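ugh ok so i messed up the first submission bc i forgot one of the chains. this is the corrected input, ALL of the components this time, i swear. 877 residues overall. if the numbers dont match what u have on ur side tell me asap before i send this to the collaborators (the ones from the other lab, u know who)
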Amino acid sequence: MTETIDLMKPGSDQRAEKKILIIDDDEHLLQGLTPRLKTNGYSVVCAGDAVTAISMARKEVPDLIILDLGLPAGDGFLVLERMRALADLAATPVIVLSARDPAHNKKRALEAGAAAYFQKPPDNHEFLTAIRRALGETVALSTFLKT
Amino acid sequence: MIPEVPGRLDAVTRLPPAASTRSPSRFSLADENDAVDLSATMLADLLDFDAWGEVLKTYGRTMRVAVALTDSGGLLLGKCHNPQPVWTLIRGAASEGGAGCPFCITKRLPCTAVADAVRTSAVVVVHDQAGLTHVAVPLTLGKQTLGAIIAGQVFDRYPQPLSLRRVARDFGISAPELWEVAKQERPVASTLLQASGDLLCALGHAFLQQRHGAILEKKLAETNDRFRWLAEGIRDYALFTLDTTGRVTSWNVGAERMLAYTQAEIVGQNFSCILSPDDVQRQATENQLAKALQMGRGEYEGWSLRRTREQFWANVNITALSSAAGTTQGFAIIMQDMTERKKIATVLEEAQRERSRLQEKFLSHVSHELRTPLTAIYFFTTNVLDGVFGDLNLEQRKHLTFALDNIGQLKNMVSDLLDITRVETHKLTLAHQPTRLGKITDEVLSTCRTHAAAKNISLRSEVAPDLHFVWADPARVRQILTNLIDNGIKFTPDSGTITVKGDLFGEDPDFVRVSVSDSGCGISAENREIIFDRLAQVKGGGELSRNGLGLRLFISRELVSRHGGRIWLDSHLGHGSTFYFTLPVFSLAKYCSHIFNAPNLDAGSVTLITVDLVEVEGSVQADILREIRKILERCIHAGQDALLPSTSDEDSEMTFFIVACTDAKGFALIASRILRDLQNFDKASQLHPVISSTMLPVPRGQSREEQIRELIARIESLVQEHLLGKEKSK
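and heres the new structure output, hopefully the right one now
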């Protein structure tokens, strides 16, 4: 199977490295997703529950947040609402990545201010495209390298 | 005078059947009773000699003749009334009766009077050996002769001493004694006898018919009684009748029990007192009565009211009672108390719902729980495969590609599990929009291409580019196509071909037919039967039998049928398979039917309003487009304007069309509302809406259908032109 891979080396981007906060309680997801984001030129920080998520977000000021919905110590929707209420986080784009059924949750997440909704497992290519779009980066197919 | 011929009976007068026109002796009842039901008991009833006794006795006494009833074989029924002295003397002395006829004084040939009367349906007059005369009168009902009456035993001329002496000798009685009796007898003229025979015939018919009527009436009364007992005896059903104004005319015990009104209380009252006070229920009753008036019968289930004001759920059957002429005389109503059954049904339904809810909850939980580890595996596999941790050798790459392929299968199965639950709990919702099949086919084929390439299978689309839009949920159409194409790839050997075609369905132009053909192994008749069933596993497929949970074709069938289409399959073993499905064509006329009504069209003009949004950098997100649609919906008048659905075609999504049954003034109002509301919508501040309009006069002097057809055609071409122009300017 040939997979489009996004190997934008950190040095190839003129701008400063953008920071992504992943909020998910699944240690393996964090371990699996982090290297791919790093390979694509982003720095990554992680939080495993709703409470840590908010304080981490305020401390790290990420450029984008990847948010799971089922979290210990609070629901992903709660995190989303609280961030929208905080001046320093209100504008940070959030992409929801959840195992939950989009039929019941996607509309609610988008209305609560999420930029996109992905059900686990996402397609790598579509997922990275959405991240770039949410970060306001030009999405040009030519920048994707094929292996 | 007719000379006596010894040794035989002389028929003095025979009325030939043809003479019946002259004579009243044939009282045929054929006209009234052509087909009379004559069972053995009926016959016995009709010829019951006790019943005939009085009439025969009176006749005999009045006419001074003997009279008796016989069956059609001439056998005496009961006794002979008013027997005459000469006959009594001779027959009393005789050790045996006369041969055949009970009235004949003869030792010779039997009298055939009754047989003749029965055969000819005419009155037969006969002389016997002693010179006594009798008449046989047929008793006919309809076309059947049931029996006869014999009357006579009188002389029709002065007694002949010579023949009497012969009789005395034959019967062993004293000749002088016989002569003494005989000479006292006053002869009755044969013309008088003839007339009295005719009279008897008329009398017999009249009595027979009256008796027949009486018997039928009695039977009817018995049947009526049986029905009344039946109606009254049925206690679990309320049976009652109404007149045409709704007044109760009869009321059985079951009705008394069920509705708690006694017959005395309710007969004459309007039956509305037993209806639930709820207007909807009353309307249902009215509707069914009206239906019964028209069609003869009506039925409904609904709440009814007992006298105690307690409501109960009843099944109500209404039958119109019509006269022979066809006019409705009233209604018969059968009512059954279904409250208990309804309670049980409600409990069952509730249990069913609970079961579905639990099942859905369970499957959604399972699906969620499976997705989490699946995601981790997916990331780990793709990271290594994509060389995030360094290059791989060919073997490593091959194995990881297989792993990824299997992850894909698992992912699909997890999705199918959830879909199946949605299908079964009827929670599968469709977001209809005008959908371009060609575009979706291209998308699906491009996603399937990698998979197909592994087996060197080529995928082809032959969907006509100008094919009508279908009214469907694009995501679901994508799913159906993906399922069918995946299925095709699975069952097609290396280097095969899969072709998707789409055209207008020949059998029903309101549908588009899509076909997915493969050059695979084909499907046996046995498997064709079950392939769309839930959990269908194709038999005899060898390695091909590993086809997931066997839910995908079932889901596809459900999805197609939810769209109002159907799915089927054409296949021959060894010659590949073709799956077909149909989807409804999007009809602008149907979509706008609610605004193209008489008052709107009579206003004279229709306006097509176009709202173009300038595209901002990147692509506008779906939720913003949804938000804009909501704003536009708010700006238009629901009964007068229609916001056309956006198509799944992304290029056209920045343009919105409104069909408004309004003039220039109305357009200005709508446009200003749209501008104001879009400006207030912060997310769309960069959208720079451009609003334009085209006024379409409603064509005059045509039928409504033609007007609408012409308007729709103009709107369609304007929309096309606008979208094409936009495409060119890009």
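quick check: The domain at 19-132 of chain A is CATH 3.40.50.2300 (Rossmann fold). that seems consistent at least. Chain A touches chain B through 32 residues (CB under 8 Å).
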